[in-house]
C-alpha cells in the first residue's frame, strides 16, 4: 500500500497503478522485488514476523481476548461490533 483513496476511486486507482507496473519489464520488476525482499531479510524481517505471529497467537489465549470474542459473539458478530465501535469513534471525533 502506498496511499489511501476513497472507496469510489479504489478500482480506478488500482487499475492505474497496475498499468504503471505493467510498463516495467518483468525481469526488472522481479529483480527489484528480490532486492527489496533481501534487504528486509537482512534487517531481520523473517524473525520479526515469526515473533509477531507468536505473540499474536499467545494474545488469543488471554482473558482480554476471550472477553472480546465473547462480546463479538453477543453483539451479532464482527460487523456489528465494528459498527458500534465506529459509531463511538465518530461521536468522539465530532465532540472535539
Keywords:
about 0% strand; 2 domains; mainly alpha; about 100 residues; flat
Characterization of the model:
The chain is built from 5 helices and no strands. It is mostly helical and 96 residues long. The chain folds into 2 domains: 1-45, no CATH class; 60-96. The radius of gyration is 21 Å and the shape is flat. It starts with 6 loop residues before the first helix and ends with a helix. The model has no long low-confidence stretch (mean pLDDT 87).
Count of domain modules: 2
The main sheet comes to: none
**What is the beta-strand fraction?**
under 5%
Q: How widely separated are the two ends?
A: 30 Å
Fraction in helix:
over 70%
| Uncertain residue segments | none
Element string (H = helix, E = strand):
HHHHH
Separate helix tally: 5
Total count of strands: 0
Radius of gyration: 21 Å
Label the overall shape: flat
Average per-residue pLDDT, rounded, comes to 87
Coarse structural class: mainly alpha
Detail the topology: elements first, then pairings.
Elements: H1 7-22, H2 26-42, H3 45-59, H4 63-74, H5 78-94
Amino acid at each position: 500500500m502506498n496511499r489511501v483513496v476513497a472507496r469510489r476511486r479504489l478500482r480506478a486507482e488500482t487499475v492505474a497503478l497496475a498499468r504503471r507496473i505493467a510498463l516495467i519489464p518483468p525481469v526488472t520488476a522481479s529483480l527489484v522485488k528480490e532486492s527489496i525482499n533481501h534487504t528486509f531479510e537482512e534487517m531481520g524481517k523473517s524473525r520479526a514476523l515469526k515473533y509477531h505471529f507468536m505473540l499474536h497467537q499467545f494474545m488469543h489465549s488471554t482473558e482480554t481476548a476471550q472477553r472480546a470474542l465473547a462480546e463479538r459473539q453477543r453483539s451479532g458478530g464482527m460487523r456489528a461490533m465494528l459498527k458500534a465501535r465506529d459509531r463511538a469513534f465518530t461521536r468522539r471525533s465530532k465532540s472535539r
